[in-house]
Amino acid sequence: MWSEAQADPGVCPGGGRPAQPAPQLPDGFPGGRGLCAVCSGFVNVDGGVLDRHDAFRGTDDPGEAEGRARWFNTVGWN
């Protein structure tokens, strides 16, 4: 077992790193967000850097999950 003290931090250290919007699929996914190289989440980009964000732990939104799967199958893990 592990305790909360052993858990990864909730805030991703990728926030504030330089980024640009990720390539978009024909339907517009990921909507201008950039891919965080630390947590693999799609995050808003403001002024050329990733917004501060929680570490990506998956999504409960079926549309987001489907978009992520299509994006990674199309664009890949560059």
Helix-strand layout with pairing:
Layout: E1 34-35, E2 42-43, E3 45-46, E4 49-50, H1 62-74
Antiparallel strand pairs: 1-2, 3-4
What does this structure look like?
This protein is α+β, with helices and mostly antiparallel strands and 78 residues long. It contains one helix and four strands, in the order E-E-E-E-H. A two-stranded antiparallel sheet has the order 1-2. The chain has a two-stranded antiparallel sheet with strand order 3-4. The longest helix is centred in the C-terminal third of the chain and has 13 residues. The model has no long low-confidence stretch (mean pLDDT 91).
The arrangement of helices and strands along the chain is EEEEH
Strand order of the largest sheet: 1-2
Q: Return the average pLDDT rounded to an integer.
A: 91
Main β sheet profile: 2 strands, antiparallel
Shape: globular
The helix content, as a percent range, equals 10-25%
Number of strands: 4
Structural class: alpha+beta
